[in-house]
Amino acid sequence: SACTWTSMPRLSAVSLARCTAAAVPWRLCASMAALGMASGQLPSFDDCTAGAGACVGELGGEETSLISVRPGTTTTTTTTVRLASAELLSTESYRYGKFEASIQFAPASGVVSSFFLWKRGSEGNETTWNELDFEKIEADCEVQLNAITGDPGPVSHESHPSLTISSCRNFRTYAFEWTPDYIAWLVDSKEIRRITGRLAKNFARNARQGMAFHFNVWPGDEAFGGPFHVRSLPVYQYIDWARYSAYLPPSGGGGGRPGRPEFE
């Protein structure tokens, strides 16, 4: 059956504390800021409880080194800046189905802004890694798609579709369709990637406990995300709504469309 988290009137770019104070599940203004700007406002994952429906928390005081060159010289200055970033995740995991969310990703070079599905515990050495990603990277707000596996992982299977959308200036509907036979990525109901065969079977076999919704914002670097500039902060990722719809196997006749799964 469908499970929907509804929207509320859109908020302007305010602090994470203001966004979560509304206490409406899944309506999040996820932020990343220099720690002095957001410190003390971000809740801890210790506040998450199994019955909460959704958890929001700080991704930690990540440190990044900023290297600047004095104009007209070769003198460099290295400054270490602590950053605060945020994540929203579901406390429930789901196996197979359609996972959707209306998102406006966070802008700026060096800022990774994402919607992904994650099998809890994937980071462990004694288990397989299972993760599906939409990740906004680079200053031009490119959206990268990824299916991550490995025993242990991570082992990435990336693709970089050419999208004629602005992922950082407008809300778009991003979706995963996860079935026993294929996994598809969709933007505004248009399929932009599909995997089948061994890679799809890996998820069917190794993610039997399901995967959870995750949304987060975090600092990248020149290798992934683009050159990071602290002056671009704070930045925000907006999530208007999220929805899970259960997988219905293809109908042999009568009920659904033969040969095609449905979601409700």
Automatic annotation (TrEMBL):
<dbReference type="GO" id="GO:0004553">
    <property type="term" value="F:hydrolase activity, hydrolyzing O-glycosyl compounds"/>
</dbReference>
<dbReference type="GO" id="GO:0005975">
    <property type="term" value="P:carbohydrate metabolic process"/>
</dbReference>
<dbReference type="InterPro" id="IPR000757">
    <property type="entry name" value="Beta-glucanase-like"/>
</dbReference>
<dbReference type="InterPro" id="IPR013320">
    <property type="entry name" value="ConA-like_dom_sf"/>
</dbReference>
<feature type="domain" description="GH16">
    <location>
        <begin position="3"/>
        <end position="250"/>
    </location>
</feature>
<feature type="active site" description="Nucleophile">
    <location>
        <position position="131"/>
    </location>
</feature>
<dbReference type="InterPro" id="IPR008264">
    <property type="entry name" value="Beta_glucanase"/>
</dbReference>
<dbReference type="InterPro" id="IPR050546">
    <property type="entry name" value="Glycosyl_Hydrlase_16"/>
</dbReference>
<feature type="active site" description="Proton donor">
    <location>
        <position position="135"/>
    </location>
</feature>
<protein>
    <recommendedName>
        <fullName>GH16 domain-containing protein</fullName>
    </recommendedName>
</protein>
<dbReference type="Pfam" id="PF00722">
    <property type="entry name" value="Glyco_hydro_16"/>
</dbReference>
<keyword id="KW-0378">Hydrolase</keyword>
<feature type="signal peptide">
    <location>
        <begin position="1"/>
        <end position="22"/>
    </location>
</feature>
<keyword id="KW-0732">Signal</keyword>
<keyword id="KW-0326">Glycosidase</keyword>
